């Protein structure tokens, strides 16, 4: 194996040494933390479900990554630890293990591509697949005796390779000969673990300590992310402006979040945790592990230590430890891949946590209207001070029924809607920590000028358009209150009946 960090980045040895192939260094130690989710104050417990990905007949499985509807890792079948991918269920597993090789693992999945390592003889080799064992590509650079790939995005693959006695961070573009060395001059060892296609992250050994690092495609672009006062740090994933990893503070690893500089460091370690690490992120979410009372708990955050959610709480009782290594967001769902220690079986099982964001369902009733069904309405969520914090363009069925996701941050909100000539209707507050049904939004018609009140201004506009149809020069569709394609006495009647009404705030 190239070195421990290349095979199992969640575990760190005291020194950065090259060793031959050994059993995977992924035994359960007390201390993994799911990283945060920006902007989400809490997750509703009822909205989480767990899928056990361990395939039939496997004696062990770990999921290390997630993305694009897939999860990646390995499963031990017939005594062989083989790279594999899943699509959300145990039965969906596809083996990527190349025939004739000793071991293999997937460490990153992106649309149409997977990367990781394949062991041939005594050493690991950086590897790439496109969905099948037959698609395997050996990325080991010319002159390197071992290598491993950990991340991929935007046509890049990142990891490291060893040409002498220490591993060096590097980057590929789909072929072994495309390898680019990222190790800064004057340093003594490095590894890269993640990329978003523009930036790469990992660590660089500087004066004997591994320092969290950020690159932009060249060794010269290296940025040291280690915060002042720390005694070691690693960065494992990058997405846009954010990076996650871990930092040694007062002798303990702490899950960490950065936004491009050492000074931007945020300590994500929950107050109840002894140690923690963050391994993956989306634009708004981070996952990893936290050690609670001596046991490792898969975890997820929202960008602060207080936002930590214990994902281990959703597992069956036979799991003693759990870890989160991959995360992606699709629509209103968040998918977190990892694994847990099944004490009853004395083995690891690949796991997938799925969070379905709570939703609000209800009906918009358009008063005094007989025209074609209205297809959409802008649903706004307002805080308790009536400030708009989130909005969704809701699709309405022919009877006005809708379902929209709640704001990312669970809490108490008013639900508000304003459509065309109807006055604004605001109801609530409602608690969005779980899904809400039956929200009724009955709208009052007559607001021709859309100023949220039925007044003399509306009479003026309707009078100007009176007795018009769509082909006339004075036609005003907002004055056609009842939707019958003419502005006539029926519309005057609606306006008169609702004169003086004022919409909600």
Could you characterize the architecture of this molecule?
This protein is mainly β. It has 2 domains: 31-356, Neuraminidase; 359-497, Immunoglobulin-like. It is built from 3 helices and 36 strands. Strands 1, 23, 24, 25 and 26 form a 5-stranded antiparallel beta sheet that branches. A 4-stranded antiparallel beta sheet has the order 2-29-28-27, with no helix packed on it. The protein has a 4-stranded antiparallel beta sheet with strand order 3-4-5-6, with no helix packed on it. The longest helix is centred in the last third of the chain and has 10 residues, at 456-465.
What descriptors fit this protein?
505 residues; Immunoglobulin-like; 2 domains; five-stranded antiparallel beta sheet
What is the radius of gyration? 28 Å
- Count of distinct structural domains: 2
Structural class: mainly beta
Fill in the CATH topology of the largest domain: Neuraminidase
| Beta-strand content | over 45%
At the fourth level of CATH, the homologous superfamily of the largest domain is TolB, C-terminal domain
């Amino acid at each position: 194996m190239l070195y421990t960090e290349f095979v199992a980045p969640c575990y760190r040895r005291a020194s950065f040494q090259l060793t031959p192939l050994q059993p995977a260094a992924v035994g359960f130690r007390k201390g993994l933390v799911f990283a945060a989710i920006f902007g989400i104050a809490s997750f509703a417990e009822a909205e989480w479900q767990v899928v056990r990905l361990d395939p039939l007949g496997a004696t062990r499985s770990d999921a290390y990554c997630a993305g694009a509807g897939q999860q990646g890792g390995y499963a031990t079948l017939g005594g062989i630890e083989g790279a594999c991918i899943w699509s959300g269920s145990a039965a969906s597993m596809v083996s990527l293990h190349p025939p004739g090789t000793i071991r293999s693992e997937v460490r990153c999945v992106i649309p149409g591509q997977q990367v990781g390592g394949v062991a041939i003889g005594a050493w690991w080799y950086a590897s790439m697949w496109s969905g099948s064992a037959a698609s395997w590509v050996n990325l080991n650079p010319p002159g390197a005796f071992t290598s491993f790939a950990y991340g991929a995005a935007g046509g890049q693959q990142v990891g490291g390779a060893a040409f002498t006695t220490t591993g060096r961070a590097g980057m590929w573009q789909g072929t072994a000969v495309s390898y680019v060395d990222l190790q800064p001059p004057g340093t003594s060892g490095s590894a890269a673990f993640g990329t978003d296609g523009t930036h790469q992250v990992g660590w660089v050994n500087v004066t004997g300590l591994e320092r969290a690092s950020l690159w932009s495609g060249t060794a010269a672009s290296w940025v040291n992310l280690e915060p002042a006062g720390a005694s070691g740090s690693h960065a494992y994933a990058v997405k846009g402006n954010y990076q996650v990893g871990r930092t040694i503070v007062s002798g303990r690893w702490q899950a960490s979040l950065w936004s491009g500089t050492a000074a931007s460091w945020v300590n994500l370690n929950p107050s109840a945790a002894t140690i923690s690490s963050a391994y993956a992120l989306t634009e708004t979410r981070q996952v990893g592990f936290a050690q609670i009372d001596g046991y490792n708990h898969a975890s997820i955050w929202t960008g602060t230590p207080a936002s930590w959610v214990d994902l281990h709480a959703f597992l069956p009782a036979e799991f003693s430890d759990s870890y989160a290594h991959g995360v992606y967001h699709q629509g209103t769902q968040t998918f977190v891949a990892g694994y847990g220690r099944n004490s009853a079986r004395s083995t690891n099982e690949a796991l997938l946590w799925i969070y379905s964001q709570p939703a609000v369902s209800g009906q918009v009733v358009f008063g005094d209207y007989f025209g074609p069904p209205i297809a959409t309405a802008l649903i706004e969520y307002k805080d308790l001070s009536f400030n708009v914090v989130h909005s969704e363009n809701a699709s309405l069925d022919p009877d006005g029924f809708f379902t929209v996701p709640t704001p990312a941050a669970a809490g108490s909100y008013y639900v508000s809607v304003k459509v065309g000539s109807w006055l604004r209707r605001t109801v609530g507050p409602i608690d969005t920590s779980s899904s809400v049904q039956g929200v009724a939004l009955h709208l009052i018609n007559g607001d021709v000028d859309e100023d949220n009140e039925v007044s003399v201004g509306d009479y003026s506009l309707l009078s100007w358009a009176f007795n018009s149809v769509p082909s006339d020069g004075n036609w005003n569709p907002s004055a056609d209150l009842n939707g019958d394609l003419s502005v006539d006495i029926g519309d005057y009647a609606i306006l008169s009946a609702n004169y003086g009404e004022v919409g909600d705030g």
